DNA sequence: AGCGGAACCTGTCGGC
DNA sequence: TGCCGACAGGTTCCGC
């Protein structure tokens, strides 16, 4: 489900609601959300601690706890967090409850059960977080550093951009969109991208991610914010899901192909 | 290094 | 209406 803009949207909303709240009780309805950790251990590691900040790294949600520890969450395809008034029975797809000191419940909801939660002392101890590459909107991610990294790989651009250890947070929707915006083919080997093209790619990536965050992300089917509202960036998608429709730039029909067992959408005319 | 395939689970949608 | 296959915003492991 969520890529960087959707996770950022969730993190900002939770950060407006959770800091200062204490977790009184944890209830786990599906063990496999916890990556093998017994639910009693998970609950004991969180209960009695307070939230101090909620933020994002790549597609991971990081909940800083006080006096120590971090809750690390990944929504995978269908995970969501919602804040519910006091409830007594779990609803469909409720996986974990964090009952707060004001009676409300932070609920981890996940239809497909791919999403994960874990507790660590420091996020860097988390295997997935530890291997994340640069944040695409950070000052460290420059057109020049991107060009240099591209030059060291022969991977097709689609694959290169999806690799979380290179740039953290891009997924299937935004990679299709930013390659179209940059006029680059998803099949182009990374090291066949010129410095000028890398600059275009970098610019398109930042522009699209910022625009998507400003629209609270993209809702294709079931992404919801914490307040259950949809994002709005789907109205601005130019190629993702648009197979057969005319390219907004040149009117040639958008193509869909399989790359790494995922759908890639692109314009065969504009993207070389 | 990098790719294809499968696995993790469930829901939805389109075609027949 | 009902069944069946394809597909879904992600990640990880395994074999070649």
Walk me through this protein's architecture.
This protein is α+β, with helices and mostly antiparallel strands and 272 residues long. 26% of the residues lie in helices and 22% in strands. The chain contains 7 helices and 10 strands. The protein has helices at residues 4-17, 39-46, 127-130, 143-151, 157-162, 172-182, 195-214; strands spanning 23-28, 50-57, 60-66, 70-74, 79-84, 94-100, 105-110, 116-120, 255-259, 262-266. α4 (143-151) packs across α7 (195-214). The radius of gyration is 20 Å and the shape is elongated. It binds a DNA duplex (16 and 16 nucleotides) through residues 1-3, 6, 32, 59, 74-78, 93, 110-116, 128, 153-155, 159, 162, 164, 171-174, 217-223, 240, 260-263.
Question: What string gives the helices and strands in order?
Answer: HEHEEEEEEEHHHHHEE
Give the biggest sheet: 4 strands, antiparallel
Strand order of the largest sheet: 1-6-7-5
pLDDT averaged over residues = 95
Unreliable stretches (pLDDT < 50, length at least 5) are none
- SSE class: alpha+beta
Number of beta strands: 10
**What is the overall number of helices?**
7
N-C termini distance:
28 Å
Helix content: 25-40%
How much β-strand is present in the residues?
Answer: 15-25%
Radius of gyration: 20 Å
- Please state the overall shape, judged from the principal axes of the Cα atoms: elongated
